[in-house]
Amino acid sequence: MNTHIAPAPEPIPGAAENALDLTGLTAYTVGVIRLAEAKGLRPTWGQPRGNARRIILNAVGPHGAFGSITIGRSSGKVLRAEVVHGNDARGACRAQGTNAVRVLLNGVPRSTCQPGCAAPSTAACRS
User: Fold this and answer.
1) pTM above 0.90, yes or no
2) pLDDT tens-digit profile of 83-115?
3) Distance CA 80, CA 68 (A)
4) Is residue 119 classed exposed, middle or buried when 0-12, 13-18 and 19+ CB atoms within 10 A define those classes?
5) With contact defined as beta carbons under 8 Å apart, do 67 and 78 qualify?
6) What DSSP assignment string belongs to 34-61?
7) In the sheet that 93-96 helps form, which strands lie side by side, from edge to edge?
8) How many beta carbons lie within 10 A of that of residue 127, not counting itself?
9) Nearest residue to 82 via CA among 60, 56, 64
10) Residue 111 Cα distances to 46, 61, 73, angstroms
């Protein structure tokens, strides 16, 4: 008879509410998350994986930027990020480390795209 019980899945921080639970994150990581919020990227927690947690980024509308920030689960430090500048973008922009991720996010323009936008491209959406 096997008496081993599987551990309960780890809860997704902040899933039950809109505000992110920033417990255990470094001050620099919190600053990066606040920058993402300021850029309109609406950061939310994604599923934890291995030794890392992901913050999902997703601006409003189909032409807004989206991507993720990976954070060390035990260190609370920013490890890397990836941002795609809208659905019609060619490739993703990637950065390693807190400072590089901050530079990457500083280069993301705040999206003006609206939900349900039917423009054929990001350029058409902006005009």
Assistant:
1) no
2) 988 776 777 899 999 999 999 999 988 888 787
3) 9
4) middle
5) no
6) HHHHHTT---EE---BTTEEEEEEE-SS
7) 44-45, 52-58, 66-72, 78-84, 93-96
8) 7
9) 56
10) 22, 8, 30
